[in-house]
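retry 2 of 3: previous attempt timed out while embedding S-adenosylmethionine. Reduced batch size to 1 and resubmitted. Inputs unchanged:
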Amino acid sequence: MTLKDNDFDISQWADDAYVKKYVESVDIIIPDRRVFLDILSTFFATNFSKGVRVLDLGSGDGFFIERLLNIDDSIDAVLVDASPEMLRKAGDRLSAFENISFVESTFEGLLDDALPQELEGGFDLIISSLAIHHIALNRRGELFARIHSLLKDGGRFINFDISMSISDGLEDFYIKLWEERVIRLSKASGIEVDYKSFMAKHSDRDHHDKLSTLDGQLSTLRDASFKEVDVYYKHGLFAVYGGLRKGGSCGG
Ligand SMILES: C[S@@+](CC[C@H](N)C(=O)[O-])C[C@H]1O[C@@H](n2cnc3c(N)ncnc32)[C@H](O)[C@@H]1O
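retry 2 succeeded.
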């Protein structure tokens, strides 16, 4: 599938040097990503058994799918990302596993173009980490509805993402919490990262305009027909939440 003109092409994710820097420092600059890894593992183990089809939207370098495959190597996984460099890294990381497909597409492409054949047939589980906030706010509802349509009846969606705070006071508090954790982790690991410039991007208009509150994201999920919508974890700006598809046949 080819990329269409959209925000992705002018974003930092289209720059391979930025991708490299992100992958090298992400464990320090986003402490809750590791928390999500553990939540995802338990979520997977409690909800699913053998022969599961999993889709990762904005998969990056395949970090989360690798964890799931280490729990159950019978998983059939599809990774979607708009960055060829991320998908190349994911290919390297997952080279020992079978039944893995890679789809180079933007989220916008998944809404506007014909569905790639790898995404047909229904998924038991759709996961995403720190990616969905990159699609424009006015398309978030369409994307959640598409995710719902790609799930089998009884399938689940779990998303780890950043939110907009509900007040400036809370935003300052959450930013401070985030910064303190990053500094502590950086000191403990001895790894120095340019966290200030990374965190400054969060306040860039470009980035901030695409964020919605956590409540807003949960409402959008409910509007997209998800059931059992709930927050599984929240720490400052970061949250893990999800929903269930119940009833109806898969449209993917
Ligand atoms: C912060 S990284 C997260 C990667 C991975 N999920 C993780 O948590 O390590 C965001 C990912 O979203 C992808 N991305 C950004 N905008 C996108 C878009 N419009 N459509 C599809 N992927 C996009 C980037 O290429 C990148 O891999």
